[in-house]
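Exercise 7. Given the encoded structure of a 162-residue chain, write a plausible sequence.
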């Protein structure tokens, strides 16, 4: 199989491979994978109740400077936490943000994780981006696409032959 060039799709494939067992992946199933070259563009968000208390557990080196303002890349991902948790599914987001004071065009994945396979306690975020070209219009639209829901463990068990 050809290696996927796009970070967001590599992360999604890894998450989906684990989730095909009918449960949300656990944090320890993705952390070892996040120490490679992709880690610089990944975030791990701890989900709290109330949701407004959610926080960054780890932020990749390429995103670390983006923690100050709500319109920065890491801030955009953190602001999407309520949508992912309430929908119980991953989210793909394309848009424009600021990184190190430069406008960028980005694609990100925000994917739920769960220690018990049911309760979402962390989110894995992965972002690929490029600087906006000087002659490129700065789009104002952000595109959201929800990913399919991971089937509940009981539903998967019912479909398996006895």
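Solution.
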């Amino acid at each position: 199989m050809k290696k996927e060039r796009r970070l967001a799709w590599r992360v999604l494939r890894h998450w989906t491979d684990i989730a095909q067992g009918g449960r949300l992946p656990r944090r320890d199933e993705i952390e070892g994978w996040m120490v490679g070259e992709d880690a610089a563009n990944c975030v791990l968000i701890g989900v709290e109740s109330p949701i407004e208390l959610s926080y960054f557990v780890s932020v990749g080196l390429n995103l670390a400077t983006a923690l100050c303002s709500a319109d920065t890349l890491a801030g955009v991902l953190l602001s999407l936490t309520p949508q992912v948790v309430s929908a119980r599914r991953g989210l793909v987001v394309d848009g424009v943000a600021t990184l190190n004071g430069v406008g960028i065009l980005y694609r990100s994945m925000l994917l739920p994780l769960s220690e018990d396979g049911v309760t979402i306690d962390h989110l894995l975020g992965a972002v690929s981006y490029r600087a906006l070209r000087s002659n490129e219009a700065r789009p104002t639209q952000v595109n959201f696409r929800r990913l399919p829901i991971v089937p509940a463990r009981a539903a998967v068990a019912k479909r398996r032959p006895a």
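Remark. DSSP finds five helices and six strands in the chain. Students should compare their own answers with the one above.
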